[in-house]
Amino acid sequence: MTVYETLAKEILNYVGGKDNVNSLTHCITRLRFKLKEESIAQDEALKNLEGVVTVMKSAGQYQVVIGNQVQDVYEQLAPLLHAEQPQTVQGAEKEKLLDRFVDIISGIFQPILGIMAACGMIKGLNMLFMTLGLYAETSGGYMIINAIGDALFTFLPLFLGYTSARKFGLKPMVGLVIGGIMCYPGIQSSALSGSLKPLYTMFEGTMFASPVYIDFFGIPVISMDYTSTVIPVIFIVYFASKCEKLFSKFVPDLVKFFFVPMLTLLVALPIGFLLIGPVATFGSKIIAETIISIRNVSPMLAGGLVGLTWQILVIFGLHWGFIPVYINNIVTNGYDNVMMPFFACTFATSAVILVIMLKTRDRKMKELCLPNFISGIFGVTEPGIYGILLPLKKPFIISCIAGGIGGAFYGFCNFRKFSMGGMGIFEFPAMMEPDGSWGNLLVAISGVLLTMIAAVILMLLFYREKEAGQSDKTMLDTKEHEKSVEDTPALLEDIAICSPLKGDVLELAQVEDAAFSAGILGKGCAIVPAEGEVYAPVDGVLTTLFPTKHALGITSDDGVEVLIHIGLNTVQLNGEGFTAHVQQGERVSRGQHLLSFDLAELKDKGYCLQTPVIITNTNDYLEILSTMQKEVMPDDVLLHVMNS
Question: Topology relative to the membrane, per the entry (predicted)?
Answer without folding.
Answer: Multi-pass membrane protein
